[in-house]
Design a protein that fits this description.
The protein is mainly alpha-helical. The protein is built from 12 helices and 3 strands. Helix 2 runs antiparallel to helix 3 and helix 4 runs antiparallel to helix 5.
């Protein structure tokens, strides 16, 4: 049925006048675009270039066609035009951000990702990408400002989640990071890269924290923060002279646990 309709359109295209020819070209381009036949779609989009302004429903499919054909310079130029015409479509900013990042324009990439965060505040992937662009420029404060609020967000993409954990580890942030990496490993248990990244985060978090005292310093009348491998934390208080109440995590210095 689809082939019949495109045959009919191609026939109509062959004898149409200039303006009608462009309208039919767009219908043929859209047909090929939806069938992921981008190579076939592009000449018909080009035929109707004058009808591809930002307010046209065909503008973004044309842009995505260029991007999928790896015509990145053309895609970037078209995306810039659509943006200057006031387009707020996420594909426009995604393509600008991605191409900027790939070509090393990290400042530009960060700005485009920031616009995506504004357009789609509930999509953590854009915040992660913006943090990555800042991190790669070693703008540590800017990166942390974006990353820290992500710790309380529900991120279900294991790669994105692990990326947040990795960046936080490098930036010296420990709190809750191992938990994130552990969850990412569970979500992406079938991905070898995730297991490798988990080990890196695990070792990064296991490096001596300058704010934590050595275990040999634990003695009478000290409070100890204990963390298990799942990241659960609890305080234990060790008393010198009085017997502690074990149900309240209080121990005497002679208690085997305290020892």
């Amino acid at each position: 049925h689809h082939d019949k309709s495109v045959e009919f359109l191609l026939q109509a295209y062959s004898y149409a006048t200039r303006h009608h020819k462009q309208q039919i070209a767009l219908r043929i381009a859209t047909h090929y675009y939806h069938g992921h036949q981008f190579e076939a779609a592009l000449p018909y989009f080009n035929e109707a270039e004058s009808m591809l302004a930002a307010d046209s429903p065909f503008a973004v499919p044309h842009l995505i066609t260029l991007y999928n054909l790896r015509r990145y310079a053309d895609a970037y130029q078209v995306a810039q035009q659509l943006r200057s015409q006031g387009s707020n479509h996420t594909a426009v900013f995604e393509i600008l951000a991605w191409i900027s990042e790939q070509t090393g324009d990290l400042r530009g990439a960060s700005e485009y990702y920031a616009q995506l965060v504004q357009l789609k505040p509930d999509e953590p992937k854009y915040s992660i990408a913006q943090a990555r662009a800042e991190f790669r420029q070693w703008n540590t404060e800017a990166a942390l400002k974006i990353l820290l609020p992500l710790k309380s967000k529900q991120i279900d993409d294991p790669i994105g989640l692990m990326e947040v954990a990795e960046m936080l580890t490098v930036l010296g942030e420990r709190d809750g990071v191992l938990n994130m990496a552990y969850r990412a490993r569970r979500l992406g248990s079938d991905q070898p890269k995730i297991h490798l990244a988990y080990m890196q985060v695990f070792h990064g978090c296991s490096l001596p924290d300058p704010t934590v005292h050595d275990v040999s310093e634990v003695g009478e009348d000290t409070a100890v923060l204990i963390e298990d491998e799942l990241g659960n934390k609890s305080w234990a208080v060790i008393f010198g002279t009085i017997l502690g109440d074990r149900t309240k995590d209080e121990y005497s210095a002679e208690d085997p646990f305290a020892q």
